[in-house]
Write a structure and sequence with these properties.
Number of strands: 5
Largest sheet: 5 strands, antiparallel
Shape: globular
Mean pLDDT: 87
Number of domains: 1
Oligomer: single chain
CATH architecture: Roll
Strand order of the largest sheet: 4-3-2-1-5
CATH topology: SH3 type barrels
């Protein structure tokens, strides 16, 4: 029997479980975005809604609907609940 944590067996299962939820995405070049994950593909290209660019845990600007290329992503994580609003 495979080890499963929160129903996750394969890496893309985590993204599937995160659809419709807020995620934190770190990109190359020290860029950070928080948004609601709408869709992704096998290249980890992401579509986020209500996207905000973050800097020092604060909202730098609101972007809205956004496409992020998978080859620019360093990591994706459930969004922090301690984000400070500007």
């Amino acid at each position: 029997m495979k080890d499963m944590v929160n129903g996750i067996e394969r890496p893309l299962d985590l993204l599937n479980n995160s659809k419709g939820k807020e995620v934190l995405v770190y990109l190359k070049g020290d860029k950070q975005f928080v948004g609601t994950l709408l869709a992704f593909d096998i290249h980890i290209n992401l579509v986020l809604d209500n996207t905000k660019e973050m800097q020092n845990s604060e909202i730098k600007r609101n972007i809205g609907l956004t496409f992020l290329r998978g080859d620019t992503i360093i990591f994706i994580s459930p969004a922090s609940t301690t984000l400070k609003k500007k």
